[in-house]
Amino acid sequence: MLQNASAHGHQRQPPRAALWLGVGTVGLWLLALGLRFWGLGRFNTLVFDEIYFAKFAQNYLTQTPFFDAHPPLGKYLIALGIALEGFNPWGFRWMNALVGSWIPLIGIGLAFQLTRRTGVALLCGFLLCLDGLFLVESRYALLNIYLVFFGLAGQLCLMLAITAPGWRRRAWIVLAGLLFGATVSVKWNGLGLLFGFHLLWLIVVGVGGFRQILQKTGLHRSKVRGLAGENPSKEAALPLQNLRCLTFFDLFILLPLVALIVYGLQWIPHLMQNPGYNLWRLNYEMFAYHSRVGSGAETHAYCSTWYSWPLMLRPVSYFFERALSLAEPLPILGPTLPMAAARYFYSVYAMGNPVLWWFSTLALLWVLGRGLIQLGCALFWTDSAVSSLASWVYAYLGVNYLANLLPWAAISRCAFIYHYLPASFFGTLALGWAIVELLRSRHGGVRQLGFAVLGLCVGGFLFWLPFFLGLPLTPEAWRLRLWFASWI
What's this protein's family per the entry (predicted)? Predict the structure, then answer.
């Protein structure tokens, strides 16, 4: 039962498992670091929205007034990179690459806190290294990688707060508030990462209260095994089983208050440089700007609908160049080379690893379906649906995924596939969980399916890697990777 689980009851990792976790984490970080920093300055031009964000960051260093439709924290970080390395492709990109290399580490931490399984944690981190959109967003002076990093780090702090004793719990909550304040200070849609955890807490409290009412009336049958198949008495205590130890004050007063303070303070340098608006008027103007942005192809060629993102129907072309030889410097100056005359294409697409994304979508459907079944069991039938590891995995991943995707259904302005980045993170974790479950099966055919899915994800990453890193392709090889007309 949730209310009886000990806050300090999680099992200590065996030394060998802890060693594997540490070594694997370092290895995956080095892999992520290498992928992000390799050839970072190859394209000596501003790519996609770098024409805004890199220039805005430089404006902070030159004290040039300007208006931007997003809060300033992301540009501050890009400006820090420029201040240290200069206004050049390496200078305005390296900070993104460094922060982006930490995303798999956050994934490992969250997956381990969620499951207490070393294998699940490392596999989730590995799959995050194989995702193309996280890689591309980390290699250019864009904002989305900061939003995701701060928001996920805030969730990890809340996970750690659950099992922390005494004053340390409040310290983790304050740190989470700082990080959630930072994610909203990059872009407003970072609120989804905060909303997901709050929604999960409300569901857990609501289920617990409903169960107590049924038990008092004798309508709750609590001795029947759950659909997940685990016996609560044998289940290792998990942090989320103690979620209710976080109080209403912690999550709905202290944490938002800290986040609001961070959001307000980060505006001070911007307002000192741009005194034309006060804080309230500036936020109103930002909201008005987003309200005026239209939707559809007439607004931007790469606008896409929120329900198309899980299937990756409309990636965004960030960079495209044609060349006669591999020796030509990029970008190529002079008249544009006709398509028919080009011998090599350089393309960078904001797209996920298609194989990984499609399998992640299937895994999410499984997680959401099983989660709804377990919720029904928790409400009306069985204690094991509340105690089992699988139940908490379904709840955490399903709620956070929907909290970061469904709000886009109410947004009328043009949106892009990179807005799916926070939700896709939980899809990747769902796939990692599903693959491990396949590999743990007693049936050889099921285990082989798990290895096949993992192998296809690796193969997909290698196949589309030229689109992620902007590697040269012959026209034939370029077309071979464009599976749908909507990808062009």
Answer: Belongs to the glycosyltransferase 39 family.
